[in-house]
């Protein structure tokens, strides 16, 4: 089986994929930590989506991964779209999860400018815990919220601001029709960050894209409904 590369989103990290361990029963799974986040929080942050994409491509090459399947969540979904644009020959199957084709999202729980202002005022730790709560349908009461918030808290303020800037100026809309990798678009129907309009655009614009909508979830389907999430991803990757 081809290896699977997992790319986390804003204020995420490789540790957030712990509940996806079943995906590794018959394939190698590599979860990266983006510069400035997770276990790489000490690294200098990157301020463009294209820069993040180039970094992950270099990391996969360092690991000896020439061709692989690729899954990106949230900001990571933007990054993997850029990876496919930069190196289409290396990605076989693509999962775009809880993400969209533009960085400035109408209907986001708050404008990116507001997030940046509040991050500067409140500090990194408070910002991490506040935003992480929006990823769950039950917010702070969600069972997996504490673990997710702990991962988010590793992000330095510089990384938080750089990540927000990277999303603010990015758009992958014009490249969607050229995505040739077989693609699954996966979304939780209660997502407060990426509305249905963003998911629908991916699904309808990427040639042959498949769609999976999980009810009763927000932005963290992989933690809120891990068994369903894993089954959908596993079946997509195994098909054909």
TrEMBL record:
Pfam families: Abhydrolase_6. This is Alpha/beta hydrolase. InterPro entries: AB_hydrolase_1 (IPR000073), AB_hydrolase_fold (IPR029058), AB_hydrolase_sf (IPR050266). It comes from Ruegeria marisflavi. It comes from the Bacteria. The keyword Nucleotide-binding does not apply. Residues 4-229 form the AB hydrolase-1 domain. Keywords: Hydrolase. The keyword Transport does not apply. One of its GO terms (molecular function) is hydrolase activity.
